[in-house]
Write a structure and sequence with these properties.
single chain, alpha+beta, GTP Cyclohydrolase I, domain 2
């Protein structure tokens, strides 16, 4: 049976950005994640599902490595989740950068990607 496991609003502080100052000062980020999976059994065992604690830790590992683009962050999160979780079929990732340095008021900039297991082939 297909289903989804999701985490919303995971908060991180990171040093991502194209500009040198972003790499020095850092910024606040949030990540939303939806992982499509195949539930083989409904037996109330953690081993029969995607453990969202592990999904958080995987996301955190990627967020801790500074990168220039939100697109790269989102792709790396999706790819790592698919690689580390055999039952994961597809990952929807949204990376939000709070108050991006665009020279004007802006709540957030974000990138959304859908990363499919086919990219691992």
């Amino acid at each position: 049976m297909k289903g989804k496991v999701a985490l919303s609003g995971m908060a991180f502080y990171g040093y991502h950005g194209y500009y040198v100052e972003e790499n020095k000062l850092g910024n606040h980020y949030t990540v939303d994640l939806v992982v499509e999976t195949e539930f083989e059994q409904m037996d109330d065992n953690l081993e029969s599902t995607l453990n969202y604690e592990n999904l958080y830790k995987t996301t955190e590992e990627v967020m801790n490595k500074p990168l220039k683009l939100l697109e790269t962050l989102a792709f790396n999160i999706g790819k790592k989740i698919l690689t580390e979780n055999e039952s994961a079929l597809k990952v929807f990732v949204r990376v939000n950068k709070m108050q991006p340095p665009i020279g004007a008021l802006c709540d957030k900039a974000y990138v959304e990607l859908e990363v499919d297991k086919d990219i691992l082939s």
